[in-house]
Amino acid sequence: MDHNEKKALLKKLDWITTLIPFICIILLCLVFTLNPTGSADTLAAIRSFLGNELGSYYLIIGLFTFLCSLYIAFSKYGTIKLGNLEKPQYSNFKWGTMMFTAGLAADILFYSLCEWILYAGEPHITELGAMQDWASTYPLFHWGPIPWSFYMILAAAFGFMLHVKKRSKQKYSEACRPLLGKHVDGPFGKLIDLIAVFALLAGTATTFSLATPLLSMAFSRVTGLPESRFLTIAILVIICIVYTITVYFGMKGIAKLAASCTYLFFGLLLYVLIGGKEARYTIETGITAIGTLTQNFISLSTWTDALRTSSFPQNWTIFYWAYWMVWCVATPFFIGSISKGRTIKQTILGGYVFGISGTFTSFIILGNYSLALQTKGVLDVMGIYASTGNLYQTIIAILETLPIAKLGLVLLAITMIAFYATSFDALALVASTYSYKELPEDAEPDKHVKLFWSVLLMLFPIALIFSENSMTNLQTVSIIAAFPIGIIILLIVFSFFKDAKEYLNQKQEQR
């Protein structure tokens, strides 16, 4: 890059939304690393207030978003076409794989293997009935229609903003312009964008810090290297290299990685389904769980446990809604941008089909295999978790019951690295667009900007690995970041209604 190109690039960048989050993340990294106990106590106090006192806020936003997305799909707004292409930019398979792998895919693998274990000992599951029925139903609820609705409703709004209105600012604040008007160009707009970037970094940190230790344990078992923080960080660096290379090549690289990722994912599922010899139990338990979820969907979505008999929704449902809301900063932008040529109805319903079918398949096959080991007395999965208190060791013990276990661990590790890389491609791409004052619809950010974000997205997770991070600590980061994001999501949804209504009225007048 020559001197003039450098100068031109520096002029295009929005330094406030780039540097303030960068400085704050560096400071947070230092605090987490130097004072792990103090920072954990502060986080716990804030979580207690948000989750306990204001938990209903998250539940209401979740149910509203889901119902609203269905209304948009089946109303006049669903007929709006995103962009003027004759046929969609990507084939259904490419589009579906890019969307699924961009949305929490590595975490879906991690939680599929162990989520029922987290619920099985909860008093609330015993109150509801048999562990067999409810420990397999709740994971589908927490990774089902409501979480995906956060993505789909915003993907429709962002797709409309990018492809129909041709807005050149690819930011959260720009999506609020129909409601906020010129305030978007002032401090209020900057605040919205800063909150969005913080939330993006918080979601990244939570994702990486939760599942990476499983990768390092799998590597340790296969290679014989001792487990350590440095092995975990080495794996983070490998993932960083893979996704940085892909981001460097832009959308073509991302599409290829997403497709190969999906093949690996289905390979892993087939290995567990056939190799585990529990296919009948796995599928039947899954069908029952889908039925139980369908029958109890509204009561699960609105249960607040007002007497705090078990605090189950505060500990789990509210965390999950917050977790997905935090990821809403990047993934819906990515889905909106790759949905060019589709109608809003196709985008929302197609998103549900690909997103939920991928997620449910993963939870039904991987989760119910380990549930079979427990209920049939093959392996005391809950006993291992109770005695070690370590989810990662429990997951490794489950996988070691499969034939050619080391091969299975290698397949899991490669699939997770590929999933992480694709998720982070989407993140780095969207974060890079945030660094620009303006960026036309089809333009991609400069490679150097993408490189900067690729590295920055890794710093916070590494700091969290060095701090004594419990799952609670990580969940709290998401719950705090999601609180203001919830308000912004509502602003974007109502802005979309206002903008889309005007657009449809203009089209009607032109006829």
C-alpha geometry: globular
How much of the sequence lies in strands comes to under 5%
User: Structural class of the helix and strand makeup?
Assistant: mainly alpha
Task: Give the tally of β-strands.
Answer: 0
> Number of helical segments?
24
The parts where pLDDT drops under 50 for at least 5 residues are: none
Protein name: Choline/carnitine/betaine transporter
InterPro entries: BCCT_transptr
GO molecular function: transmembrane transporter activity
Family: Belongs to the BCCT transporter (TC 2.A.15) family.
Report on this model:
The chain starts with a helix and ends with a helix. The chain has 511 residues and is mostly helical. Helix 5 (92-102) packs antiparallel against helix 18 (331-338), helix 14 (229-248) packs antiparallel against helix 23 (447-466) and helix 15 packs antiparallel against helix 22. It is globular, with a radius of gyration of 22 Å. The chain has 24 helices and no strands. The chain has one domain (13-510): Amino acid/polyamine transporter I, CATH 1.20.1740. 80% of the residues lie in helices and 0% in strands. It comes from Lacrimispora saccharolytica (strain ATCC 35040 / DSM 2544 / NRCC 2533 / WM1) (Clostridium saccharolyticum). One of its GO terms (cellular component) is plasma membrane. Its main location: membrane. It is a multi-pass membrane protein. Keywords: Cell membrane, Membrane, Transmembrane, Transmembrane helix, Transport.
